[in-house]
Amino acid sequence: MKKKASGNLTLIRRLALAPYSFWAALFIVVPLIFVAYYAFTDLQFRFTTDNITRFFTATSTVADETGEHEVRTYVLIFLRSLKLAVISTVICLIFGYPFAYLISKAGARTQSILITLIMIPMWMNFLIRTYAWMTILQDTGILNGFLGMLGLGRIHIIGTESAVVIGMVYDYFPYMILPIYSVMAKMDVKLLEAARDLGCNGVGVLRRVIWPLSLPGVISGVTMVLIPSISTFYISQKLGNGKFYLIGDAIEGQYAANNLHFAAAIAFILMVILLIGMAFMQRFANKRAAV
Amino acid sequence: MKTASKIYTGLVMLFLFAPIAILLVFSFNDSKSLSVFSEFSLHWYRELFRDSETLGAVRNTLVLAVCAALLSTAMGTAAAVGIHKLKSRYMRAVMDTVTNIPMINPDIITGISLMLMFVFVGRLFGAATSLNFATMLIAHITFCLPYVILQVLPKLQQMDKALPEAAMDLGCTPMRAFLKVEVPEIMPGIVTGLIMAFTLSLDDFVISYFTSGNGFQTLPIRIYNMTKKTVTPKMYALATIIFFVILFLLLLSNLTDADTVQAVRTAREKKKAKNKA
Predict the structure, then answer these.
(1) pLDDT reported for residue A247
(2) CB under 8 Å to B276, separation ≥6 — which residues?
(3) How far apart are CA A24 and CA A15, in angstroms?
(4) How far does Cα A288 stand from its chain's mean position?
(5) Contact status of B217 with chain A (Cβ, < 8 Å)
(6) How many C-alpha atoms does A100 have within 13 Å on its Cβ side?
């Protein structure tokens, strides 16, 4: 009797997983196959590698002080996205890491207040937040009004790469703080005391104890800032010069122009590069953890 | 906290809240200027409440978020129960990997991938536009599911395995044991999952952008379309309202938070003890 009952239970549990398995296969796995399918086909759905080749070989001319240059359009866009995303991630890490540490050292009540405060901007729509920065950074915006009041000269920042970086840092800063904080909050204070007792100075404790222990949080923070930064398109449209600027803009532009196959090809390449990058980061993390 | 820490905290908060403060202030500006404050006025709020397209988008967003949150929580909770009991390590690894995909993939790729499939299937059936409320709901459920599963699964792992067995030994049917014993144990995870799914759905722009049809507009998409043209401070009024709704909900959840209740209680008791002394 009892055996039969537990048999039923197992059956129920197996069935419980069925809807999700079906859903995940149909709406998570199959769509990714569609990305590859569109990336490697032309408009008549015949196999072609043209879309992929186009990403690596398409050229355009850009003019700067030294004259006109022939550049590889999409490779350049990708490298620019990577550069801005890495800069934003590094800035978030440099400012977010000490802040996460500060929060984790505060009293319980202060901790929960500070974490709530950090999360409030996350719940505001990110389009509105980015738009607010646009009005601040405009040539006739608040920042320039403020600088003018102080008698300092106006600065032109909207439409530059710095403006895009400011937008990225602002939008994704909390994603860096929260995972680092959650690791630090769980850190055993006794370990830090032990390190001190064994003769470590402040820097030594930070380098040999706190940093290695917080590494999982740092890695998830870096991933959570880097991935949305590298693939964004709204921030660059509003704070950048609005042309094909970042890889996300390129995908969105091709989608808006109904070039679905090329949009899929760019998405496919981005996905492959991110996968490789993440595999490397995971290996680095495992190695560090092993040491 | 030391002074240096306080200054640093202040600067971070200034950076985080200055743009929001500016939105709040300029939503009450009489003129259209975004840098010079002329006179206090509720002009833009009146404009906002006359904008039926935006109000419709708010309604659409709420309908979509409620549907997506309920369906993804139901399916995700069931999935967590199933994954928890998986014996095969291989199957477990497959489920974990698949569940991680929507969280690791950039939103733009999740959006594009679903859109490509919807368009392809739509064409098979000869539909001119295949993107509508249903496709958006599917997309929202898909990106909410992993978050629900990741909230419920740890609660199942923390639960004492003997509990449901004891219930069955005492005569419960497996289903009854599950509903009466296991569900209450994992309830905190289910509730957090539901709330997370709801807020993720409310706030999503990128995936919605790629999977929405022309007929169905959510608030983030409406905001996107509004910011394409020159913007009136009407949108600032909207942002201000959203800000205060969030603040209200946060205060509410903080007040009902067990820790806070406990803290207030101890504070009161201390006060009483002091008064007595």
Answers:
(1) 93
(2) none
(3) 15
(4) 22
(5) no
(6) 28
Inside any domain, residue A29: no
Residue B133 contacts A, CB cutoff 8 Å? no
Residue among A124, A231, A233 whose CB faces B239 most closely: A124
B227 and B241 housed in the same domain: no
For residue A241, give the CATH number of its domain. Answer: 1.10.3720.10
For residue B26, the chain A residues in CB contact (below 8 A) are: 135
Q: Is the pLDDT score of B236 beyond 90? A: no
CA distance A65 to chain B (A): 32
Is residue A61 in some structural domain? no
Report CB contact under 8 Å: B35, A138: yes
Mean pLDDT of B10-20: 92
In a domain, B85, yes or no: yes
Instruction: Return the residue of A nearest to B165 by Cα.
Output: A6
How much is the ipTM here? 0.87
Residue A267 to residue B81, Cβ atoms within 8 A: no
Query: pLDDT value at position A3?
Result: 47
Residues of B in contact with A125 (CB under 8 A): 203, 205, 219-220, 223, 239, 242
* Residue B147 and residue B137 share a domain: yes
What HEC string does B136-193 produce? HHHHHHHHHHHHHHHHHHHHHHHCCCHHHHHHHHCCCCHHHHHHHHHHHHHHHHHHHH
Q: Note down the domain range covering A238.
A: 73-290
Q: B residues 64-123 near A, CB within 8 Å?
A: 75-76, 78-79, 81-83, 85-86, 95, 98-99, 101-102, 104-110, 112-117, 119-120
Report chain A residues whose CB lies below 8 A from the CB of B23.
128, 132
- For every residue of A257-273, DSSP letters joined together read TT-HHHHHHHHHHHHHH
Within chain A, residue ranges assigned H as helices are 2-24, 30-39, 50-57, 73-105, 108-123, 126-137, 142-149, 161-185, 189-197, 202-205, 211-231, 234-239, 247-256, 260-290
Question: Any chain A CB within 8 A of the CB of B15?
Answer: yes
Which amino acid, A8?
N
- How do residues B63-93 score in pLDDT, each as one tens digit? 999 999 999 999 999 999 989 888 888 989 9
Same domain, B122 and B34: no
Burial bucket for residue A145 (CB in 10 Å: 0-12, 13-18, 19+): middle
What are residue A41's DSSP bridge partners? Answer: A47
Query: Phi/psi class of residue A242: alpha, beta or left (left: φ > 0; alpha: ψ in -120 to 50)?
Result: left
Does a structural domain hold residue A177?
yes
Q: How far is B97 from chain A (nearest CA, A)?
A: 11
Containing domain of residue B273, as a range? 1-41+234-277
Backbone angles phi, psi at A265, to 5 degrees: -65, -45
According to the model, what pLDDT value does residue B257 have? 60
Both B30 and B64 in a single domain?
no
CATH number at residue B97: 1.10.3720.10
> Domain tally for chain A?
1
